[in-house]
Amino acid sequence: MHQRLSKTRAEPATTTRRAFTTVELIVSMTLLALLFSTIVPMLRWADYQKKVSQRRTIATQVASNLLEELTSQKYAGLTTAIAEQSEVPAEYQKVLPDAQLDVDLAPPEAPLAGQKITVTLRWRDRTGQTARPVRLTTFIYPQTGGSL
103, 121 in Cβ contact below 8 A? Predict the structure, then answer.
């Protein structure tokens, strides 16, 4: 005896997916790993650049403060001995490793009676190389008898 199959339509499958397949999980984890492998070095570089910028700002402030101290001296009282006594404050030694401060007092030149003062501050970065120095220059002039 043969059984006859019903010619009625089979009910459509109404199963819904409730989970990810293993392939989908592997692909998504690979994409996340790739994303993190590119983002982490960029974040490190950004942090390094932020520290370099902060050190440069601090070095500029230290050099500016020293230059202001030197220009507040009387013209005749500004000597190389005073300039050689200048040093980087102790609280900035940790931020600016191996800081070297150079103060150059150039003698006055003939047409202008001004004295040139140059403050140069050098330090080492985290790789041990000398960072680009901060160099500030100004001129001071003897006071004249008249007032402005």
Answer: no
